[in-house]
């Protein structure tokens, strides 16, 4: 199982605005496993923010398989033996109350939820009887992203995207060696030209409970 807590710990996302994110591109083999497909379940970033187009909705993003080259992006896929799960705490006890579970089958992403959690913790119960949104995985060659919306207003996208996380790794190492120099502005984006496999789920706030603040974290769980 791979787990990503926002900014390294459970933090609240205020449902009236703001953006929270966390990143660690490519974990060690002891975490991801060995072999060319070992990074299929490796989370690079988790984002949660109010939709800029509609403030009655929240957007959840899970990015995986970091540092994909254009050539690798053309053949990258979501593994069918992995559950991509957004966990949502709306009661402030650092335990998930709702889950959004994402599973791919035959080139289509099926997203279940948000639905009340079955089994909190590191073992998940599939909630496939809950509300489902299904969308074709957008190909790298497609000029237009493919999205789908269910009757509850949940909208979903899945596919390769340019890595949105900005990090000047060279300057970072220079600062570690000599903190006095500080970071450059705007710096050089180490991840420029690389891609990720992204799952984006837009959810009406009415489906997330009545709390003004939620905690969000993501996990990938292999069968």
* Share of helix, binned: under 10%
Helix run count: 3
Proportion of residues in extended strands: 35-45%
Shape: globular
Multimeric organization: single chain
Q: What Rg do the Cα atoms give?
A: 17 Å
- Determine the mean pLDDT: 84
Overall structural domain count: 1
> Termini separation (Å)?
10 Å
> Got a strand count?
13
What does the largest sheet look like?
7 strands, antiparallel
Mind explaining what this structure looks like?
The chain has 223 residues and is mostly beta strands. The protein has one domain (2-166, 193-222). Helix content is 9%, strand content 42%. The chain has 3 helices and 13 strands. The protein has helices at residues 29-32, 70-75, 169-177, and strands spanning 2-5, 12-14, 19-23, 43-50, 57-68, 82-89, 98-105, 108-116, 132-136, 147-149, 155-162, 195-204, 213-222. The strands form 2 sheets. Strands 1, 2, 6, 7, 8, 9 and 13 form a 7-stranded antiparallel β-sheet that branches. Strands 3-4-5-12-11-10 form a 6-stranded antiparallel β-sheet. The protein is globular, with a radius of gyration of 17 Å. The chain starts with a strand and ends with a strand.
Care to give the gist of this entry?
This protein is mainly beta. The protein has one domain. It contains 3 helices and 13 strands.
How is the secondary structure organized here?
Layout: E1 2-5, E2 12-14, E3 19-23, H1 29-32, E4 43-50, E5 57-68, H2 70-75, E6 82-89, E7 98-105, E8 108-116, E9 132-136, E10 147-149, E11 155-162, H3 169-177, E12 195-204, E13 213-222
Antiparallel strand pairs: 1-13, 2-13, 3-4, 4-5, 5-12, 6-7, 6-13, 7-8, 8-9, 10-11, 11-12
């Amino acid at each position: 199982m791979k787990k990503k807590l926002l900014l390294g710990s459970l933090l609240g996302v205020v449902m009236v605005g703001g953006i929270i994110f966390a990143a660690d591109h490519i974990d060690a083999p002891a975490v991801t496993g060995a072999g060319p497909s070992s990074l299929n379940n490796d989370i690079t970033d988790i984002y949660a923010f109010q939709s800029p187009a509609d403030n009655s909705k929240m957007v959840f993003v899970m990015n995986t398989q970091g540092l994909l080259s254009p050539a690798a992006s053309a053949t990258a896929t979501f593994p069918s033996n992995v559950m991509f799960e957004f966990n949502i705490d709306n009661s402030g006890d650092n335990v998930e109350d709702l889950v959004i579970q994402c599973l791919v089958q035959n080139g289509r992403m099926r997203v279940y939820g948000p639905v009340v959690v079955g089994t909190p913790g590191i073992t998940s119960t599939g909630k496939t009887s809950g509300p489902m949104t299904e969308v074709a995985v957008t190909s790298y060659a497609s000029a237009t992203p493919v999205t789908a919306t269910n009757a509850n207003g949940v909208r979903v996208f899945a596919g390769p995207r340019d890595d949105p996380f900005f990090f000047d790794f060279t300057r970072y190492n220079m600062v570690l060696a000599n903190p006095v120099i500080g970071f450059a502005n705007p710096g050089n984006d180490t991840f420029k030209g690389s891609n990720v496999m992204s799952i984006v789920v837009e959810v009406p706030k009415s489906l997330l409970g009545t709390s003004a603040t939620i905690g969000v974290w993501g996990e990938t769980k292999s069968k």
